[in-house]
């Protein structure tokens, strides 16, 4: 990565509001900014508008008000290809993400769509799969993999595009504890900006020093994850609950 | 209508037929069936020779006869239709064991049975030696419209996913004591079908989002392409050419 | 792809271990036209027709769905493939299942519908040997195009004519599916008449086909209508045939109402001038019904046209069959033409008649129920 003197933030969202065609309004003016290299958790109860926000980050949903800027580039028609290369979204259901017949083709899809061919494409695929520890599954059809493996391949499909920011929608959902830990190790080993949308609070605490709370379509809180999770009143107000017996104050972070 | 379950026909193997590039196999299969269908039905020996040719292919592909014959059994519904033909067809009639049968109908029944069976056997051999993935690559190589190949590819990729959803919905119904027994339960089943459609369509939308997020703009990047050497082509086309010789003889004699 | 053998065999083991839920390994056979049923020239011509229809549909679908065509049509094809495996028990161990042409047309529109059914048929032919490869053209033309197009035309016609509302959509679906099946049967009969390989009295074929398929059509109609009803109850916006008006959006940003800027990618269909077109639709529908009845009656009751082609065919076959010493067509049954004329005409009349009666019965039933419970809310305003 070539670091400029002061790199623009990886992601900057300002005054974002949006309603679906059926009239349901999901976002009511969202503002936040994420610096390059940060790992941030976006927390919020079901229906807070998390997924809607994610779909704005690479311009899939547009037509509301407000702006989204990725590494200094405004999200809009003229830079769409560039934006979609820079923002790598890992969707919640890996079956949606892995739409090609084999793992290799799936990981190759993004770079190939960007015009990369031949040996360079092959190398990108190998590197991305190696980073998630799935290199030996290259020629398997995705639906023969376990759920955890599919999620890791889904991360690889996005890493192959060498994105500026990695956006993960509920990365820990449906994973058994071992797969969950493996994924956490992978995410920690990456040197990209990460925005992790989740309501798995211990996972957020484990991986992300900073958290945002999205509630009823606005950012309700922004601060250190440990501080937010320890604030009982704030947590209760936004329907966020820690798992039984989990005390964020007693957790000592390794890194 | 549906007559039981047929397992997916692919048989894993390393035979020379398996190793042929898929588009050569598709082309050869299609050409062979066209030749068979164009053969005059009176040349009965020709159909025997076709069967021998297919037998040779099956032998080369190491597809056991039992496997092939078992798949052929599934064609029973149209056998029934063929059996009816001699009774209902027009024209001159002959008495066989005291039953009046139409000569033309007998020819027709033979025609459908012979050509239909050979057609099914050919398709079974193709499917038994060609993987799903390869079929799609072959169709792409044979210049089917790319969009059509993409649709087929998505259908193959998600066929299992969708049917699995259907199965889970059935289990959910049955766990709650529901069992469809007659027409009055159709409403519930139709709700299942409706829900399945909504899930499929929404999944299609999500898949599209995932594609767009990775730079899809209407055209699929070509990642794999299959190629065939002249030798492979001529090897694959041996079958239809041999059949063509038989067919020409069938017309001439 | 040669160096991956080890992994492939591994993954194959995986398949066999967990194979039981898989659709593609658990395919439920539907009966399609096999090879040898229709002669080679007719198969070739239908192949060209099918290719043309697919080409038109590809363009049309792209217009309807833009770059979403591939994933959406693919998933709908997978849905059709799966839903054909859903058994609808009738009685005493027998059961029916959906053919899906009408359903696809109503849910995703005629173009995408034709594409989905065609892809399903193509894959069934190649992967499961279901339906002959040379008969692909026949299968796609009859089951893909005729079913879908007839169903959609009837459906749109009825939706325009019937009062707006969810029930009208259900009724229109019922009639559309009901008609689409015998229409496909008639189309097949026509192809069989032109290029059938056995000389069966066309009247008999038509009678048998239409008769059987009217029964099948009733099942198809019930399932289709119920399924469309189930979809429209939850996601009316997904029913292509019932798309319509969409309201202009306003957003609340920090308490203030803001108009949505003109959406770039909005896929709002242009709103048609409905009321003025209604008369057009009514007259169109009536005309087509009358025409269908008249033509089918005339075509099947008039032996000349039929005889002529049959005789032409007969002569052709005679030439080729003289070589085989025997000429089974020598005295092409004159006595049976009477029967053919009668039964053919009858089939046409019965087909059209039953259809019209069923259609109007349902229409009147709805009208009357509407009168009774007029207070029932019309939930789907944008029909």
From TrEMBL, chain A:
SMART domains: AAA. InterPro entries: AAA+_ATPase, ABC_transporter-like_ATP-bd, ABC_transporter-like_CS, ABC_transpr_CbiO/EcfA_su, Co_trans_ATP-bd, ECF_ABC_transporter_ATP-bd, P-loop_NTPase. PROSITE patterns: ABC_TRANSPORTER_1 (PS00211), ABC_TRANSPORTER_2 (PS50893). Gene3D superfamilies: P-loop containing nucleotide triphosphate hydrolases (3.40.50.300). Its main location: membrane. The keyword Repeat does not apply. Residues 11-241 form the ABC transporter domain. It is found in: Cell membrane. It is a peripheral membrane protein. GO terms for biological process: cobalt ion transport. It comes from the Bacteria. SUPFAM superfamilies: P-loop containing nucleoside triphosphate hydrolases (SSF52540). GO terms for cellular component: ATP-binding cassette (ABC) transporter complex. Part of an ABC transporter complex. Responsible for energy coupling to the transport system. Probably part of an ABC transporter complex. Responsible for energy coupling to the transport system. Belongs to the ABC transporter superfamily. This is ABC transporter ATP-binding protein. It comes from Streptomyces aurantiogriseus.
Automatic annotation (TrEMBL), chain B:
One of its GO terms (biological process) is cobalt ion transport. The keyword Kinase does not apply. Coiled coil: none annotated. It is a multi-pass membrane protein. It comes from the Bacteria. It holds the Pfam family CbiQ. The keyword Lyase does not apply. InterPro entries: ABC/ECF_trnsptr_transmembrane (IPR003339), ECF_CbiQ (IPR012809), ECF_transporter_component (IPR051611). Keywords: Cell membrane, Membrane, Transmembrane, Transmembrane helix. The chain crosses the membrane at residues 43-60, 72-89, 109-128, 233-252. It is found in: Cell membrane. GO terms for cellular component: ATP-binding cassette (ABC) transporter complex. PANTHER family: SLL0384 PROTEIN. NCBIfam families: ECF_T_CbiQ. This is Cobalt ECF transporter T component CbiQ. The lineage of its organism: Bacteria, Bacillati, Actinomycetota, Actinomycetes, Kitasatosporales.
């Amino acid at each position: 990565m070539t670091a400029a003197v002061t790199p623009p933030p990886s992601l900057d969202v300002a005054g974002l509001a949006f309603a679906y065609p059926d009239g349901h309004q999901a976002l009511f003016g969202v503002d936040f900014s994420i610096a390059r290299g940060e790992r941030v958790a976006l927390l919020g109860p079901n229906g807070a508008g998390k997924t809607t926000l994610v779909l704005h980050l690479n311009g899939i949903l547009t037509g509301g008000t407000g702006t989204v800027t990725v590494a200094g580039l405004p999200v809009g028609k003229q830079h769409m290809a560039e934006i979609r290369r820079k923002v790598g979204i890992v969707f919640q259901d890996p079956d949606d993400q892995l739409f090609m017949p084999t793992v290799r083709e799936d990981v190759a899809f993004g770079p190939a769509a960007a015009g990369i061919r031949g040996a360079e494409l092959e190398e990108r695929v190998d590197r991305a799969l190696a980073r998630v520890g799935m290199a030996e599954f290259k020629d398997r059809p995705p639906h023969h993999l376990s759920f955890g493996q599919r999620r890791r391949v889904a991360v690889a499909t996005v890493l192959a595009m060498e994105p500026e920011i990695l956006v993960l929608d509920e990365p820990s959902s449906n994973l058994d504890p071992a797969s969950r830990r493996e994924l956490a190790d992978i995410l920690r080993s990456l040197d990209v900006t990460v925005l992790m949308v989740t309501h798995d609070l211990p996972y957020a605490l484990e991986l992300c020093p900073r958290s945002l709370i999205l509630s009823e379509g606005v950012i309700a809180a922004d601060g250190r994850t440990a501080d937010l999770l320890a604030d009982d009143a704030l947590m209760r107000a936004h329907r966020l609950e820690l798992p039984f017996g989990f005390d964020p104050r007693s957790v000592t972070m390794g890194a | 209508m549906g007559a039981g379950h047929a397992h997916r026909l692919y048989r894993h193997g390393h035979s020379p037929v398996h190793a042929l590039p898929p588009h050569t196999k598709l082309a050869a299969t299609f050409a062979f069936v066209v030749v068979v269908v164009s053969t005059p039905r009176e040349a009965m020996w020709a159909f025997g020779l076709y069967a021998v040719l297919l037998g040779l292919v099956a032998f080369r592909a190491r597809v056991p006869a039992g496997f092939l014959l078992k798949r052929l059994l599934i064609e029973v519904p149209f056998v029934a239709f063929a059996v009816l033909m001699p009774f209902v067809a027009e024209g001159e009639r002959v008495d066989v064991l005291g039953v009046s049968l139409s000569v033309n109908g007998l020819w027709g029944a033979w025609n459908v049975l012979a050509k239909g069976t050979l057609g099914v056997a050919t398709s079974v051999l193709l499917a038994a030696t060609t993987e799903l993935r390869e079929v799609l690559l072959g169709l792409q190589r044979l210049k089917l419209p790319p969009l059509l190949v993409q649709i087929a590819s998505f259908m193959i990729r998600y066929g299992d996913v969708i049917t699995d959803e259907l199965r889970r919905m059935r289990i959910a119904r049955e766990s709650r004591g529901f069992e469809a027994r007659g027409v009055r339960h159709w409403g519930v089943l139709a709700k299942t079908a409706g829900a399945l459609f909504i899930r499929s369509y929404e999944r299609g939308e999500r898949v599209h989002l995932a594609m767009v997020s990775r730079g899809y703009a209407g055209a699929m990047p070509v990642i794999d392409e299959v190629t065939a050497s002249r030798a492979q082509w001529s090897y694959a086309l041996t079958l239809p050419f041999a059949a063509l010789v038989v067919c020409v003889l069938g017309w001439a004699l | 792809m040669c160096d991956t053998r080890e992994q492939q065999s591994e993954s194959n083991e995986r398949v066999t271990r967990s194979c039981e839920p898989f659709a593609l390994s658990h395919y439920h056979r539907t009966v399609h036209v096999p090879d040898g049923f229709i002669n080679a020239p007719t198969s070739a011509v239908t192949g060209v027709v099918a290719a043309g229809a697919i080409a038109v549909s590809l363009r049309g679908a792209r217009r309807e769905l833009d770059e979403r065509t591939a994933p959406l049509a693919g998933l709908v094809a997978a849905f059709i493939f799966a839903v054909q495996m859903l058994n609808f028990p009738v009685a005493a161990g027998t059961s029916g299942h959906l053919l899906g042409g009408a359903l696809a047309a109503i849910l995703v529109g005629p173009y995408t519908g034709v594409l989905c059914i065609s892809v399903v048929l193509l894959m069934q032919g190649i992967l499961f040997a279901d339906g002959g490869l040379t008969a692909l053209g026949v299968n796609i033309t009859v089951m893909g195009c005729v079913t879908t197009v007839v169903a959609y035309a009837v459906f749109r016609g009825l939706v325009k004519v019937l009062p707006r509302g969810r029930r009208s959509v259900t009724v229109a679906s019922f009639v559309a599916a009901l008609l689409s099946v015998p229409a496909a049967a008639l189309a097949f009969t026509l192809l069989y008449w032109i290029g059938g390989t056995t000389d069966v009295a066309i009247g008999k074929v038509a009678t048998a086909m239409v008769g059987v398929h009217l029964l099948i059509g009733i099942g198809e109609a019930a399932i289709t209508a119920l399924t469309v009803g189930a979809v429209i109850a939850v996601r009316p916006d997904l029913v292509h045939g019932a798309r319509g008006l969409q309201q202009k959006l306003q957003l609340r940003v920090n308490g203030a109402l803001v108009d949505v800027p003109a959406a770039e990618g909005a896929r709002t269909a242009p709103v048609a001038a409905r009321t003025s077109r209604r008369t057009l639709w009514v007259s169109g529908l009536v005309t087509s019904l009358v025409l269908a009845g008249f033509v089918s009656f005339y075509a099947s009751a008039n032996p000349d046209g039929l005889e002529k082609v049959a005789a032409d065919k007969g002569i052709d076959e005679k030439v080729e069959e003289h070589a085989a010493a025997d000429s089974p067509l020598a005295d092409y049954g004159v006595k049976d033409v009477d029967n053919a004329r009668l039964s053919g005409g009858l089939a046409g009349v019965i087909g059209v008649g039953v259809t019209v009666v069923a259609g109007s019965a349902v229409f009147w039933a709805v009208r009357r129920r509407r009168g009774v419970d007029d207070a029932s809310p019309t939930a789907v305003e944008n029909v």
